[in-house]
Amino acid sequence: MRRLVAALAAAVALGVGLTACGESDPVAGTTTGETREITHAMGTTKVPAEPKRVVVLDTDKIDTALSLGVTPVGAATASAARSWPTYFGEDKLAGIKEVGVLTEPDLEAINALKPDLILGSKFRQEKFYDELAAIAPTVFTEKVGITWKENFLLDGNALGKEQQAKDLLAAYETRAREFGAKLGDAASRKVSIVRFMPTEIRVYGPDSFSGIVIGDTGLGRPERQLLTGKEDRRMDRVSPERIGEVDGDVIFVTAYGEKAAAEQAKVTGGTLWKGLSAVKAGKAHVVSDEIWMTGIGVGAANKILDDLEKYLSA
């Protein structure tokens, strides 16, 4: 299959060369007309000034495209959840074709969509870059999560929506600050973020996507989740026996996929969980994993603010 895909990609690349030499009928999906140069994690790439057929290979890029009014023709899915951000509404997702999962994009399916721009992530898809770039102009961001704002602006630029992206990000940051200011005592409220995975339980720190959003409001975090002194301050793991470590003034809980949801039900039904001060006070709230964890864009960030307003404003 990989050989077949490589052959297809090579054929598209050959088509680009023929077009450049004056072929009258350009290959569908290749870059024609006005272009712009985008510098990204894999180098510099010429992209269409106004891309029309965009394929996105990470969840943050679905959020970005839809936030900027661009509906991708194809998108990869998160493997365990296998869904796209439903918080945009099913009507926005109806025409998108699935092109594999984040770590294994389906190159043949991507090629069949004849994209004129592919947005991906070096962190997840570096080994596929050359094959993707042979299909269409491909722009990769470097990391995920911690650089979500920079990624949003880079992808927005690649989509030809640079100013709109800047405006949306500024509006989100203003909203976050104003919300925190309205609380008055934001820093004294310790917000715990807990995620159930299929094989482990995680707490999320200040460098995670949801942790950054919490930080933008000025809300505090439990000492355990500041991850002080750790090289990676995105997340840490806790065992079911040490679930007492996830306590805070308020706890937001998510689960990644059905197996994780079953583990969540098991742990939160136990006496250790029920003994947490936030749980006893009725301040443990189950929220959407696709918003708090996999959205990683300005659309999801605003949805997190919606949850904070719902549960903390009262």
Automatic annotation (TrEMBL):
- SUPFAM superfamilies (UniProt xref): Helical backbone' metal receptor
Q: Which UniProt keywords apply?
A: Signal, Transport
| Residue ranges occupied by any Fe/B12 periplasmic-binding domain in the UniProt entry | 53-314
Q: Where is the signal peptide?
A: 1-22
GO biological process per UniProt:
iron coordination entity transport
Cite a GO CC annotation: outer membrane-bounded periplasmic space
* Cellular location(s): Cell envelope
Q: Which domain of life is it from?
A: Bacteria
The record's PROSITE patterns line, in alphabetical order, gives: FE_B12_PBP (PS50983), PROKAR_LIPOPROTEIN (PS51257)
Please give the family membership noted in the entry.
Answer: Belongs to the bacterial solute-binding protein 8 family.
Q: How is this protein named in the record?
A: Iron-siderophore ABC transporter substrate-binding protein
The organism is: Micromonospora deserti
